[in-house]
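User: Teach me something about this protein's shape.
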Amino acid sequence: MTGDDRWYEAAFVVGITNALNVVADGLGGAPMRQVEPEMAPAEVRTIFADIRAFYGTGGPAADVLGGEIPMPFGLVAHDPGYLADVWAAVRRAFSERRLTRRHKEALAFAVSLTTRSAFGTAFHLAELRRLGVGERGVMEIVGVTQMFSSYTKIADTLQLASDMADIAPPDASGVPDPGAE
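Assistant: First, the predicted structure itself:
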C-alpha cells in the first residue's frame, strides 16, 4: 500500500460520503424522524457530542446540516450500535492523515454533486466554507467535477473501452472479474 495510501484514503472518503448521502437522501424525506439529542440514550448522546465537536455544529450551519446533528447520524441513531459504527468510519475517513480535511471535503462535495445528493451537496459545501474555502475555491471544485463528469458521460454514451486496462497486472486476489466467464 506504500505509495498508494492517498488513493486508498480518497476511496474511503468517497465510499463513506456515498453511505451518508444514501441515508440522508433515502430516509430524510420519509416518515422516519431523526433521534432528538435530548431524548437519546446516553450512549447516543456521547456520540452526538463527538459529532458536534468534529463538525463544529450548533451555529449558523445547523440549518444546512439538518439540525444540531447532521441528518444521517440522527437517522441511524435509532440503532446505537449502527450509529457507533457509521460515526467511527466517518471520523476515520475525514480525519487528516495523508490528505487534509479540506481536500477530503472537496472530494466529498464533488461526489455529492455527481450523485445529485441534495443533502451531501449542501452539507459538504457548508463544511468547505467552514474550513475557509471561498467562492473561487468552490467554483474550481465545481468546474473540475463538471469536466470529469461530462467526459465520463461522453465515454459511457459512446461505450468506449478503457485505454488503461493493461497498465496493471491481473488481480490474483480471487475477486470475480465481471468480464470473465
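Now, about its shape. The first helix runs from residue 5 to 27. The mean pLDDT is 86. If you'd like, I can walk through any region in more detail.
User: That's plenty for now, thanks!
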